[in-house]
Design goal:
five-stranded parallel beta sheet, 2 domains, homodimer, 231 residues, five-stranded mixed beta sheet, alpha/beta, elongated, Methyltransferase, Cobalt-precorrin-4 Transmethylase, Domain 2, Cobalt-precorrin-4 Transmethylase, domain 1, 10 strands
């Protein structure tokens, strides 16, 4: 019998934010897969370890999912790693692929899931707390109430149009664009149009909460979620 | 010493989707507050009970948060209920207010939180899995990948403009508007522009997954999350 491929969300950073279901899935998986070669530097692994100490004794398969804008290289890498997971699933092993936040939101697991589904492999997504919900909670604010909309946008592209949308804007994955985004937010903030919060390393010991665009750090070494509310 | 007001998200429906932190908060709270008068009919209570059986023996404070479009009546009701929570917090009790999904997304807790913050009461938000992440997982789909945006929109207003946004659209709280929304989705689906999934009672025993706008039930008795993806 074939195994199952589980995509397990471990939440943004606090080990206590794992769900009971995620804890169970990690405990029951035969093999745990990580999106980083060095498990000690893998944030998803560290978060999960805090909730499931016996993870230390599990069989781990860790590959470096490098971030690149080279679409062809990315596809090649995903296919290559997927072949290894597939071989295990076909042998009957249940595999748990760990991912920060929730597997349905900008996760590396998404690529693997698509390849697995195309091969008829059974896939199950196990949800995690998203970093935007975690960041709003850490900031003590709501993302939406009444009839407000929320827009989750990738900071990897031009966000000018998105910033004009009504409701709350969440900017994720800003990475190297962060200084440019900060500049745009500062301008809108100075005009009294928006209020800005940002959370780096949400839920981790290194968590920092920034109030106002000016406070957002210019460098991209942080996992950063920016929340923009209308004034 | 004053107590703390916890807003505890219990996720969309599956008791196993509570986080470890939510379980702990429920266990430690002196009083549990529910947004429905009859706890046996309160979905948040039933979800939490599945994860924390001892909740049955906790002191419960349950008021009927009626849904009304009358803003003044709504405000009066929230203020009235809040006064009762406030009295307990001032006496030093820790209060855990249960809410479906996540407290930062369209939750009743938001109103109470604002009133408490204005009074200088300590508030802590404890995240839950959102119904849109839960519904995507149940449908076996991703909400976003690469540079795609996700728009969380309230189905209580005119959604024509929102449906034109690029990326994934999640329609929540459609309620009595569901038949009208379904009609709009059917038209776009027939033009081959969108793909539609909907999940009723996500995570509950009564969960139903609908593929395609045509399959969405016309009546509003369900807790329904609609996911619209671009083709």
């Amino acid at each position: 019998m074939m195994g199952v491929l589980y995509g397990i969300g471990v939440g943004p950073g606090d080990s206590k934010q794992l769900t009971l279901k995620a804890v169970e899935a990690i405990k029951e998986a035969d093999v745990i897969c990580l999106p980083k070669a060095d498990k000690d530097k893998c944030r998803a692994y560290q978060i999960a370890l805090g909730a499931v100490p016996e993870l230390r004794y599990k069989k781990i398969l860790s590959y470096e999912f490098e971030m690149t804008k080279d679409e062809a290289a990315l596809e090649e890498m995903h296919k290559d790693f997927y072949q290894k997971y597939k071989a295990l699933v076909k042998e009957g092993y249940n595999i748990g692929f760990l991912t920060i936040g929730d597997p349905t939101i900008y996760s590396t697991f998404g690529y693997i899931m698509k390849l697995a589904k195309a091969d008829g492999i059974e896939v199950e997504i196990i949800n995690g707390i998203t970093s935007f919900c975690g960041s709003a909670a850490a900031s003590g604010i709501l993302l939406c109430e009444g009839e407000e909309d929320v827009h989750i946008i990738s900071g990897q592209k031009d966000i000018d149009e998105a910033l004009k949308l009504s409701g709350t804007k969440v900017i994720m994955k800003s990475g190297k664009q962060v200084a440019k985004i900060k500049e745009k937010l500062l301008a809108l903030e100075n005009q009294g149009e928006i209020s800005v919060w940002a959370v780096a390393d949400c839920g981790m010991e290194t968590e920092q909460i920034f109030r106002g665009a000016m406070m957002i750090p210019d460098d991209s070494k942080y996992m950063l979620t920016i929340i923009v509310k209308e004034c």
